[in-house]
Design goal:
The chain is mainly beta. It has one helix at residues 5-18; strands at residues 42-50, 52-57, 61-67, 72-76, 81-85, 94-100, 103-105, 107-111, 122-126, 142-146, 152-153, 156-159, 161-163, 166-168, 173-177, 183-196, 201-203.
């Protein structure tokens, strides 16, 4: 009886080609599908009330200085403002300019934008600009960082960061440290909400 194996070889070869070859191989696994993380509805933009001056600034007022490793202080007396740079805040001389924004908001523009400090400068704000001492009672004053002056409107603002403040009611002044430059304001209280990705306000506890 003749063996059927030789006649089966062409059939086996065809089967091997059909399945991609007889050599042992493992098809690469499809990459695991990971559901994308749902975007947070919060952009970290906190709504705050901006401390208001008793008498609005009729125009912008600026002051500047070149600050080196030894530090220094820049003052704007008309706005009741000063910023003190400790020694080591910068590692090379930098021309710094501060502008008190016109109007009633206690808010300032700092240049050069994006400057980061090795040691925190301290902003000090005279609170006598708001009037009587009783007008300060109950206010939750703190610093606020903003990137765009258009975010200040109607006595409120959208800030990306808040800075805890030290308040001296007897001397009617407050101070807070900062890490970097852009715009800073004095907040008189949080509105209790964040701007959402859709542009609406989402309330949170104070």
């Amino acid at each position: 009886m003749r063996s059927i194996f030789p006649r089966a070889l062409p059939v086996l070869a065809a089967l091997c080609l059909a399945v991609g070859g007889c050599a042992e191989s493992v098809a690469p696994e499809a990459p695991a599908t990971v559901a994308p993380e749902a975007p947070s509805p919060f952009l970290g933009q906190l709504l705050v009330d901006v401390l208001q001056r008793g008498g609005p600034l009729a125009r912008e007022v600026s002051a500047g200085a070149t600050v080196g490793e030894a530090g220094g202080t820049i003052r704007i007396p008309e706005a009741g403002f000063s910023i003190t740079f400790p020694a080591g805040a910068v590692h090379e001389p930098v021309a710094i300019r501060v502008t008190a924004l016109a109007g009633p908001n206690v808010a300032y523009r700092f240049e050069p934008h994006g400057l980061v400090f090795d040691r925190e400068p301290v902003i000090t704000q005279d609170l006598g600009i708001v009037g009587s001492l009783t007008g300060l009672l109950g206010l939750q004053v703190e610093g606020g960082y903003f990137t765009d002056e258009s975010l200040l409107a109607g006595g409120t603002a959208v800030v990306l960061e808040t800075r805890p403040a030290q308040v001296d009611l007897l001397r009617r002044r407050m101070s807070f440290g900062i890490h970097h430059f852009s715009g800073y304001l004095v907040s008189s209280g949080r509105r209790g909400g964040y701007i959402t990705s859709s542009g609406s306000r989402a309330p949170v506890g104070r």
